[in-house]
Specification:
Elements (H helix, E strand, L loop, with lengths): L1 E6 L2 E4 L4 E9 L6 E7 L6 E6 L6 E3 L7 E6 L4 E6 L8 E8 L9 E4 L3 E6 L1
Parallel strand pairs: 2-11
Antiparallel strand pairs: 1-3, 3-8, 4-5, 4-9, 5-6, 7-8, 9-10, 9-11
Length: 122
């Protein structure tokens, strides 16, 4: 089992940048694929990015490709989401999650953090 805690959210102007962090505790962080999801008010939770256990294989939603970068540091039990060129439509609660294998679907992820709010003003 793994516990996840996100941080780094906040209010930023359109075009700005934020870096989200997700600190994991528990066993065998490096054995999990990690993902970032987001949920805006009234909308379903959606996939943003994921990375395999080694960090060498990232995947991105089309809506964030080229603007967001996912990375992980297994020595620090942390996964990051660097967000640049932010748009108002990126406003959402962002969640990190852990899965046994890299995936884009919410149902594939077994452990979730509590979320961190990202608000992008126009």
């Amino acid at each position: 089992q793994v516990q996840l805690v996100e941080s780094g959210g906040g209010l930023v102007q359109a075009g700005g940048s934020l870096r989200l962090s997700c600190a994991a505790s528990g066993r065998a962080f490096s054995s999990y694929a990690m993902g970032w999801f987001r949920q805006a008010p009234g909308k379903d939770r959606e996939f943003v990015a994921a990375v395999n256990w080694s960090g060498r294989t990232p995947y991105y939603a089309d809506s964030v490709k080229g603007r967001f970068t996912i990375s992980r540091d297994n020595a620090k039990n942390t996964v990051y989401l660097q967000m640049s060129s932010l748009k108002p439509e990126d406003t959402a609660v962002y969640y990190c999650a852990a899965a046994y294998g890299i995936a884009r679907e919410v149902i594939e992820y077994h452990y979730w953090g509590q979320g961190t709010q990202v608000t992008v003003s126009s």
